[in-house]
């Protein structure tokens, strides 16, 4: 059986958010860790939490080439 570190999962999802991609978490522990890292790194996201999980949607993309 393959077991992934929760910290590694959160790190990969945070990296996706900083690249402008959405991230999804199903468990309360991953959601809690995601919120902690988002707050620590001051990433601007919309958090859409449902009974089944939570979508983290970045509100701005730092590497965007589109003019303001």
Residue stretches low in confidence (pLDDT < 50, at least 5 long) are 62-68
The main sheet orders its strands as 1-3-2
Q: Element order, helices and strands?
A: HEHEE
Instruction: State the share of residues found in helices, binned by percent.
Output: 25-40%
Q: With helices defined by DSSP (H or I, 4 residues minimum), what is the helix count?
A: 2
Number of strands: 3
Taking the alpha carbons of the first and last residues, their distance comes to 48 Å
Computed structural class: alpha+beta
Overall pLDDT level: 88
Principal-axis shape: globular
Which value, in Å, is the CA radius of gyration? 13 Å
Describe the biggest sheet? 3 strands, antiparallel
Beta fraction: 15-25%
Explain how this protein is built.
It contains 2 helices and 3 strands; from the N terminus they run H-E-H-E-E. A hairpin with a 4-residue loop joins strand 2 and strand 3 (54-58). Strands 1-3-2 form a 3-stranded antiparallel beta sheet, with helices on one face. The termini are far apart. Helix 1 (6-18) packs across helix 2. The chain has a domain at 24-61. It has helices spanning 6-18, 28-41; strands at residues 23-25, 45-49, 54-58. With 68 residues, the protein is an alpha+beta fold.
């Amino acid at each position: 059986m393959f077991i992934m570190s929760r910290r590694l999962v959160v790190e990969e999802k945070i990296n996706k958010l900083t690249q402008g991609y959405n991230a999804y978490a199903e468990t309360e522990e991953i959601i809690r860790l995601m919120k902690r890292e988002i707050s620590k790194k001051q990433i601007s996201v919309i958090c859409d939490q449902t009974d089944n999980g939570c979508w983290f949607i970045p509100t701005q993309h730092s590497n965007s080439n589109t003019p303001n």
